[in-house]
Amino acid sequence: MATTRVRRLLACLAVLLVLAVVGPHAAVAAREYAAIFSFGDSLSDTGNLCVDGIPDYLATARRPYGMTYFGYPTGRVSDGRVIVDFIAQELGVPLLPPSRARNASFHRGANFAITGATALDAAFFQERGLGQGVWSSGSLHAQIKWFLEMKPAICGAPEACRELFRRSLFILGEFGGNDYSTPLCAKRPVSEAHALVPHVVRAIGEGVEKLIAEGAAELLVPGLLPIGCFPVYLTTTKQQKQQQPPDGDGSSYGRRSGCIKDLNTLSWVHNVALQRRIAELRARHPGVRIMYADYYTPAIRFVLHAEEYGFLKQAPRACCGAPGMGEHNYNIAFMCGQPGSHACDHPSNHWSWDGIHLTEAANAHIAKGWLYGPFADPPILNASESTT
C-alpha cells in the first residue's frame, strides 16, 4: 500500500515538474478541431467567385493559377494552396469547400471568403464617392450572414450548433486590404486610406463579436501584409512619379527593402489598431481564445532575407506577369492569367505570385508561423502539438 502511495506521489511530482519546466500551455493536449470556418478575401478564397463558371473578367481562375499543387485553376489566387489550406491539412480537416459550392458537405467546415471582399459594406464607399472601386458584394458582414443562413445545413438545432462552434476554429480574414485599395486605386491621397482605419478595425471587431455570440471560442484574426512591398503598388507608384519631380534622396522608399514607406506605414497603423482591438475583445470575453495572425513580419522577411526562405534575392518581383516589361514584372495590361503574361519556371523561388497575392511557398511559410509561431499571438498550436 505504501509502495502504491509512493508511486502516485512520484507521478504527481513528475507532472508538476513538467509544468514547471515547459509551462502550462505546452502541457495542453493537441487541439482537435471539429471544423474550420473561414472568412476573408482573395488571400483565402477557395473558389466562391467561380462556382457558377468562370466569369470573362476573372483572369485569376485561368491557367497558370493552380499550376503548382492542383494542376489546374481552382479559384484560389495563387499557384497552389492558400494559407487556410495548409492550416486545414495540418489540423487533419479536409480542404474547406467554398460556401457557394453545390452538393458539398459543410459538417467539417466551410470557406465564405470571396475575392474582392472588404471589411466595410459597399454603401460605406458609395457614400464617399468610391463605389466603383468595390466590385464584390461579399463584405465581412455579408459573409457572416451567409454563415448564419447555412447553420441549419451544418448542425441543425441551436444547441448542436453552439457545441460544434465551440470546438471549431474560426479564421476571420484578412480584411482591410481591399478597403484601403479603394481610395488608393482611385489616386486619392494616402491620408484618405488612413482615415478608414478606425472604421475597418471596428467592423472586424464587430465581426468577431458576432461569431462569439454564435458560440465561437477560438478565433484567428490576421492583420495586413506590407502593401508597400507589392509589385502592383511599386509599379503603379513609379509610373505616376515619372511625370513628377524626382524625390532627390529617394526617401519615399525603404533603403534596404525598396518598399514604399507610406503604404507600409498604413499597414502598420492598421495592424497596431487591430491588435489593440483584439486586446479589448480578450478582456471582454475571457473564456474565448482570440489569436492575432501576423502577415506583416514574414512578408518583410521574405524581402529582406529572401534566401533564408528559399526565395531569390531580388527587388519585389511577381512570378507571373509580363517578363521584361518592368523591374517588378507587373503590368496591368498583361496581368497573370491574361494573354501575353507568363509564369516563372519555379514559383517556389518567389514570394509574390502575381504582384498582388502570394505564392504557395510563401503561404506555406506563413501558415507554419501561424500554427506554431512566431507569426501568431498566440500560435494556433504549440510546437509539441505537431501532427506531422
UniProtKB/TrEMBL annotation:
GO molecular function: hydrolase activity, acting on ester bonds
Gene3D superfamilies assigned: SGNH hydrolase (3.40.50.1110)
This protein's record includes keyword Ubl conjugation: no
One Pfam family linked to the record: Lipase_GDSL
Spans through the membrane: none
Signal peptide segment: 1-29
Keyword list, A-Z: Glycoprotein, Hydrolase, Signal
Family: Belongs to the 'GDSL' lipolytic enzyme family.
UniProt name for this protein: GDSL esterase/lipase
Species the sequence originates in: Paspalum notatum var. saurae
